[in-house]
Design a protein that fits this description.
- By secondary structure, this protein is mainly α.
- The protein has one domain.
- 62% of the residues lie in helices and 0% in strands.
- The chain has one helix and no strands.
- The chain has one helix spanning 3-34.
- The longest helix has 32 residues, at 3-34.
- The protein is rod-shaped.
C-alpha cells in the first residue's frame, strides 16, 4: 500500500470515528431533552425549571 493510500485510509477512519462519536452524543442530547419533566407545582418545593 502506498503512503498516499495509507494517509487517505487513516483520514477516512478518523472521520468515521468522529462521525460516530458526534452521532452518539447527538442521540444522547435528544434523549435528555426529550425526557425532561414538565413543570409541576408541588407545595413547598422549588420549581424544576426557572420558567415554571
Amino acid at each position: 500500500m502506498s503512503p498516499r493510500a495509507q494517509k487517505h485510509l487513516a483520514i477516512a477512519a478518523a472521520l468515521t470515528a468522529v462521525a460516530v462519536l458526534v452521532g452518539a452524543n447527538a442521540r444522547l442530547l435528544v434523549a435528555a431533552f426529550g425526557s425532561q419533566p414538565a413543570c409541576t407545582l408541588a407545595a413547598g418545593a422549588a420549581p424544576a425549571k426557572r420558567a415554571c
